[in-house]
Amino acid sequence: MTLGGRLRRINSKLQGEKSIVSRNLESGKISFKMLKAFFWFTDIGFIAYWAITALHIIPSDLLFKDYNNPLMVQWNWSFIFLDLLISATGITSLIYSIKKQKKWLVFALISLVLTFCSGLQAIGYWAIGLEFDIQWWIPNLYLLVYPCFFIFPIIRELEETK
Fold this sequence. Notes:
- The chain has eight helices and no strands.
- It is mostly helical.
């Protein structure tokens, strides 16, 4: 069999299979449960972070370098709109999933992409400045990495539900 024939055969097998998200939703596997857990953790985490930041509760020894510099304060607060939009879309996705409405996938995808962007922007900033404070890198790497495990399965699911 030629390479083209093999690729067509593999493609036809893949086309006949249900998506990862569909299989996991039907069987109740850990993937969707994990996504819901990530959403709750991240969305409540963002809301808590901004409340703690507004109330100046973060101990000074945990603040990032130049935290009190007015430009740094402005930079940090510029994320509030993105982060709260992430929380709003993530929580909306959870509500729609509880109601078993397919549009939960759209809100989940929006939330995941925005979360990835939030992490990317913060990591990019710290990397350009050659600042490697593990206390700030870990949460931002979390925001950058975890969405990658769910974005493409959700895109595939959305393509199948057209």
